[in-house]
Amino acid sequence: MSNSQTVKGVVALKKSEPVSVVDIVIPAPGPGEAVVQVQSCGVCHTDLHYREGGINDEFPFLLGHEAAGVVESVGEGVTEVAPGDFVVLNWRAVCGDCRACDRGEPWYCFATHNATQKMTLTDGTELSPALGIGAFAEKTLVAAGQCTKVDPEARAAAVGLLGCGVMAGVGAAINTGAVTRGKSVAVIGCGGVGAASIVGSALAGASPIIAVDIDDRKLETARELGATHTVNSSQVDPVEAIREIVGHDGSEGADVVIEAVGRPETWKQAFYARDLAGVLVLVGVPTPDMTVPDIPLIDVFGRGGALKSSWYGDCLPKRDFPMLVDLYRQGRFDLDAFVTEEIGIGDIEAAFEKMHHGDVLRSVVVL
Ligand code: APR
Ligand code: ZN
Ligand code: ZN
């Protein structure tokens, strides 16, 4: 049996203060747990939300959750993975036993679990790992069900991104939005999440695929990733532009509109940009103070289709991660395009800054 070990990790010690690289203690894996040697971890908005106290007040947080690595050791009863396996981590290890799991919709599982034991600071203070992962660290402790084995030849910095933002975006298109061949899709907001929705739509054979953003750099990337049209919504009315591109008689919109910003005004654009029977998928994460925009109820009544939200792309890691890694390995999914830069564990604050200015799709910590 291995013992606990001390490694470096990035911790938000106090609300709204810069993060610190500190020593953290990783216990030996208990029943159902695994210790993973982290190789890469993307910087996501959610990490910043944790640092700002926007998720909860359970400081200190061990940040990082878009990770890939190698299983170092496993605890009793673990059969999913074994030491040496190359894995992508997920933040929703489903229980397999609740009502959602029983009815065959485990992505709605309400009994997801993480490691039972706690990682700590060297003084014994318990850490709250971001999304139950905490992977801005040389090693981390997770539930074995949070590990999904994928092709070990794949580049860690790229496939780790499937652990959160990229999966959310792809899944919003192919799982939640049920995008299929020939459907028209508009994606509002083409950051890491929206760009992934564009890839998902392209993989599914959608056409046209309309990218909407206020930043021309994002629109350029979107086109490289498969968008057939781009709309800069700071210059033109995106609803009119989408309707025009989709065609018909000018009165209808896209079959699927994906909102990947997480703001009321863009949700409203998405609402009106969809076809009468279209699907609106909200995947951008709103803040708790935001409300549904003021839309006449008659406009809701006057349309069929569906208003949906996509949580983690309604994904099943065991099904979706290996599939997407295979598509990446085959050259059909340019995951490398999402890795704007590789950084060190001490560069997280600079990465938050770049994220804030929209300079990156993803900064990825490589260990
Ligand atoms: N209209 C269109 N696009 C917009 C608008 C707007 N009004 N405001 C911002 N955007 C664009 C930005 O230019 C950027 O390209 O939305 C994109 C957001 O992308 P990122 O900041 O990279 O965020 P991402 O990681 O893609 O996450 C999307 O989900 O996790 C949440 O907080 C996150 O709200 C964000 C969303
Ligand atoms: Zn369940
Ligand atoms: Zn994330």
SSE arrangement:
Elements: E1 5-12, E2 20-26, E3 33-42, H1 45-51, E4 61-62, E5 66-74, E6 86-89, H2 99-102, E7 120-121, E8 128-129, E9 139-143, E10 147-149, H3 156-159, H4 165-176, E11 185-188, H5 192-203, E12 209-213, H6 216-224, E13 229-232, H7 238-246, E14 254-259, H8 264-273, E15 274-282, H9 297-301, E16 306-309, H10 317-329, E17 341-343, H11 348-356, E18 363-366
Parallel strand pairs: 4-8, 11-12, 11-14, 12-13, 14-15, 15-16, 17-18
Antiparallel strand pairs: 1-2, 1-4, 2-7, 3-5, 3-9, 3-18, 5-6, 6-10
Helix pairs in contact: 4-5, 7-8
The structure holds adenosine-5-diphosphoribose and zinc ion (ZN) (2 copies).
The site of one zinc ion (ZN) has 6 residues, from loops.
Principal-axis shape equals globular
**CATH class bucket of the largest domain:** Alpha Beta
Residues in helices, as a percent range: 25-40%
Quote the distance from N terminus to C terminus: 25 Å
Largest sheet: 7 strands, mixed
Assigned CATH superfamily of the largest domain = Medium-chain alcohol dehydrogenases, catalytic domain
User: Counting H and I runs of at least 4 residues, what is the number of helices?
Assistant: 11
Average pLDDT confidence is 96
Structure notes:
With 367 residues, the chain is of the alpha/beta class. The protein folds into two domains: 5-163 and 334-366, Medium-chain alcohol dehydrogenases, catalytic domain (Quinone Oxidoreductase, Chain A, domain 1), CATH 3.90.180.10; 166-311, Rossmann fold. The protein is built from eleven helices and 18 strands. Strands 3, 5, 6, 9, 10, 17 and 18 form a seven-stranded mixed β-sheet that branches. Helix 11 (348-356) links the parallel strand 17 and strand 18. Helix 4 packs across helix 5 (192-203) and helix 7 runs parallel beside helix 8. The site of one zinc ion (ZN) has 6 residues, from loops. One of its GO terms (biological process) is formaldehyde catabolic process. Residues 30-151 form the Alcohol dehydrogenase-like N-terminal domain.
